[in-house]
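ok posting inputs for the NAP job
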Amino acid sequence: MNPFSLVGKTILVTGASSGIGRAIAICCSQMGANLVITGRNETRLLETFLLLEGTEHQQICANLTNSSELEKLIECLPKLDGIVNNAGIAKPLVLQLTEQKDVDEIMQINALVPINLTRLVLQNKKLNKGASLVFISSINGNNCAYIGSSIYAASKSALTGFMKAVALELAPRGIRANCINPGMIETNLLKSGSIGEDELEKDRLKYPLKRYGKPVEVANAAVYLLSDATQWVTGSNLLIDGGYTLQ
Ligand SMILES: NC(=O)c1ccc[n+]([C@@H]2O[C@H](COP(=O)([O-])OP(=O)(O)OC[C@H]3O[C@@H](n4cnc5c(N)ncnc54)[C@H](OP(=O)(O)O)[C@@H]3O)[C@@H](O)[C@H]2O)c1
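and the output
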């Protein structure tokens, strides 16, 4: 008996073509889950697909900010035991130089997509009793803040507020909802800004554990929240930050 086993569970992972989402999909497959993985980049999504253990998996390429692609994804979904809402972007921008299109772009994928995806899976009865909803949020906006990340912080704290009300609303059906709040994790997201390697190295040393996290360390937390080991855990924010927000 392994309390963290995902055998017999069908899990949807968004943003599975890269970084944290790829690691989550691989770990879930190693724990026995059947995966539905989605991302925009067909080549990288296929790379993830080929790294999954087991054979009962599905890959669906979709730009989730396009409402018809999101609806098509929902239609194709089997009944789910878990969803990891992971797809997201980061764009360092001081507010004074931020344009409306930047606000829309960040809020869309980081907050509105998980909100609408959750709404649509419920309305289309795609969730099994006892399902677990996991939202990849951030320490940014929930536990701390950074200059140049006001919109990102707003998107991630919106996700936390949403998760809490959903956890309460769905508890009578045995459906759980939780957030994971990672600190900096070594993925391509770090390269999306203008921060140089020297600056990143200095920043890594600000972490009590003297490094950034690895995608697999977030993936292990997702497995925990998706598994029956956490049947009594709902409405929580799981901090995975190498001690950063202790200081
Ligand atoms: N890395 C960190 O330090 C860190 C820290 C805290 C929280 N997070 C959160 O963790 C999540 C994953 O980040 P990551 O570091 O793994 O980033 P990443 O390597 O850049 O991966 C982002 C994923 O999101 C997908 N995505 C972005 N926009 C999309 C859209 N419109 N439709 C569908 N998929 C879309 C990407 O798909 P394509 O590549 O196929 O376009 C990709 O699979 C994000 O929500 C991020 O905010 C990251």
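notes: Residues 10-233 form a domain with the Rossmann fold fold (CATH 3.40.50.720). Strands lie at 10-13, 34-39, 58-61, 80-85, 127-136, 176-182, 237-240.
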